[in-house]
């Protein structure tokens, strides 16, 4: 399994050396003047028919919208994704809850249709919203929006129940991970366990803020990859791993972090987010977004990949 590739007694950041960044990184870059003219990031990947669809948010000017890149399953090499020519597939508004930006897509099959949970920005608080699709390209927003207060959702299906992981601000000013569950995908009950994934102790690499959780399931074990930082709110410099059998009780890997920002001056040298795992044979591909700058410098997120195994 994925987690077994790491030494359980690993010495923290030394595990970063196990990953091989692909030399073609970043594999998805902004296209000036397009819906993703400034950045293209925050991926969520799912198979729909004979295609893999990678949902991303793109920024152009002050607005973020959600688009998709695609690859045929039969021809898939892990690297070549083609942007859908009619992007974005999910636009802002006109509802007040998401009239400024839509971002952070999480797409999942549920009861025969595709559900997209996303962050809607339209004035505080940040809100989690929902859209439906039959084909992955044409989306209709839910009449029940917004679903929850929070941001950066990630949905997992277990035994007919949807588990939705999301972020809220913690008392120190960073982010904590919360959990809510639903039987219908619309009405959610918040977990009493707050946060669902504890931050590290003060001074640890992930003590201040935990963001962009993504969960990979293999051989009965849920494996959460998450980004975190010791002092930054949403410019994380490390990715960690946590394990669970039930999606509620999590134990962090002793060798965290398992992946770090790139070398100085590289495309992902300042921040890394959204680690998404796909397996091909005995090799695991981790798609993620990275930036060579911080928010104060003008963030530049792009999408790349690293492999292990």
What's the average pLDDT? 94
What percentage of amino acids are in beta strands?
A: over 45%
Distance between the termini: 10 Å
CATH architecture: 5 Propeller
Major beta sheet summary = 5 strands, antiparallel
> Can you tell me the residue ranges where pLDDT is under 50 for at least 5 consecutive residues?
8-14
* Name of the CATH superfamily: Glycosyl hydrolase domain, family 43
Number of domains: 1
Got a strand count?
22
CATH class assignment: Mainly Beta
Radius of gyration: 18 Å
Order of helices and strands: EEEEEEEEEEEEEEEEEEEEEE
Give the CATH topology: Tachylectin-2, Chain A
Measured as a percent range, the helix fraction is under 10%
Shape: globular
Number of helices: 0
Class by SSE composition: mainly beta
